[in-house]
User: Fold these one by one.
Assistant:
Number 1:
Amino acid sequence: MKNRLLIPLFGVMFLDLIAYTVRYPVFTLAFYDIGSRLFAVDASMVQRSYWYGVCISIYLIATIISAPILSLCSDHIGRKTIILVSSIGSLSFAFFLDWGLSRAIFCG
């Protein structure tokens, strides 16, 4: 019975891991590829590295801000609902972010 209850939890953790790690290859390609249309052609690597760091840290700052809010909501609404909603939101954010960046890189 205990193992059966852990399957949804591992599924949610897996989706959250995918949402967190899927953006790194796309960000790297978007920010450091010379042919990327995200920056001007003459943009230096210092500028690209700066904006890469800003974009990566936005996710971490949002996590720091939203963690206490989500934990407070989970006390009132329930853990399962909050975990499911936040994981779906995180996965959809990662999907649309990567989709938009890939269109900026490849479609011009």
Note: The first helix runs from residue 2 to 21.
Number 2:
Amino acid sequence: MTVTTPVTAPHGPSTGTGRRRAKRVDFESEAIRSLRDWKQETAETSHATPASWYTSPDVFELECRQLFATTWHIVGHADKLASPGDYFTVELLGLPIIVNRDRHGEVHAISNVCRHRAAPVTVGEGNSKFGFSCLYHGWSYNHDGTVRSCSGMDDAADFDVKDIQLPTYDVRVWEKWVFVAPAQGAPDFDEWIETTAFRAARYNMGELEFHGARRYVLPINWKLMNDANHESYHVPFVHPGLVSAYNVAGNFGVVSQDDLRGEDGVERGANMSPDVNGYTHMASDISGELLAMEPNPRGPFSKVIAALGGTADYRKIKPPLACLEGRDQLAHYFLFNWPGLSHFHFMPDGLGLILLVPIDHQNTEVYVEWWMPKVEKFDERLLQAALIVFGNQILDEDGAMTQLVQHGLESGAYDTGRLAPTEEGLLFAYNDWYIKQLQAGLKREEAVR
């Protein structure tokens, strides 16, 4: 069953991969053995990743340490740090973290565990212009994690207050969001976000406003939702309303980075590109026909569209963002930053963001938010609402199907199956990257155990 919690205020994303305790990996489990022994394939010979990788706590623990810990996570909205002293707290991969802006405008991410006796240094969010004082015994810290005072320690032997420092984490602010990398080994942020930033530059992000969010938990392994987002093979069967409104079936394929963007920096007519770091960027194909890329919402909001003249007049009533030109007025772009926990959906009407928050090997939080320009006309506001309802309908269909797939994976009646080389070429490219990352991480862990 899907548990949904609507978010009506711009509180921002959840806390990233949430509260967890590091667990021991059984290196001789069936799932780990199959990962160790998996041989590299081609698209033409490719198989789906084994069922045990979606049901094994050992694989999930390895993913946490070798994939999630060494990437960038969206942890909140940048407007939470608008003024000096602003801060908010998050939990990322089990790490309590304070994200704050100091009196000089610098942004920091520091541990929220006091070096005295492990109490939280602060809770919630707010403004603290002079740093933080531990809630338990009053040890105080600057915004960058350096200590200010350790009350009661004047008589302690072999103790130097200058040796006390809260652990720090890499943090960046980009456009609407704050990103944190919880461990060493994350890619250079500018390189990691480069293609997403290239696309965002066309959308006048500063003019887009928060239009609501949704947070819900699915009883599935996180990879199932990620897998669904990496192929359109399922669209005619799972999303009948979408296939009647968008020319998407069979669109997603693999192309080179050079095909995506030329030497002049201009994007080409490409579907997807895995860049040199393995982080994926995919754009939907467009037919050149206006109606092929316009929403056709179901449910009560379909009547709104009809009352305003029908789908054929959608753009006459609500034109695309004024900043967009050419194919961008029609195209929808889905940009993934592998390992696939953040999905940016650039569309003629604004931006959708999907975050996958793995809770454990069989539960995943999905967080979705929408960014669109402010509009004054009532009919335009209705059309924006209709588009959000339509997007949520698509997510609900994926959620229902992935729960059925999770049940099949857990049944014992399935191990692996063949992938369709063309229709699931992007999924193969992702799986190939994923397997190489985990196999390399497994070798590192086995070398030191």
Note: Residues 1-11, 246-305, 308-312 have pLDDT under 50 and may be disordered.
Number 3:
Amino acid sequence: MESGFLARAAEEAGLPFAVLRVVCDPASRSLPPVAGTVLSPDGGLNIKALLGSLLRNPGQISGLIGLGKDAGRARTAMLTFLEQQRTRPAFARFAG
């Protein structure tokens, strides 16, 4: 995935590298269709596609709200982990 490219670049530059990923949606839940269509190739949000999809299928809104809540919980879990690890020797060099 994206981190493979970054890992190679860091290794070539002689820089330390670590990856932490969190998953924000449980495998048991399907994403609303709009979630797979509104991001541009550069990771930006395509507002026109978002609004068009929601106008055609407004029932997706509750799924997006749930996804947003899940993303918030994932972010909190990641930040909590990072704070707990920040002072450990293995992670201290990444803490900045």
Note: The chain has one domain: 2-95.
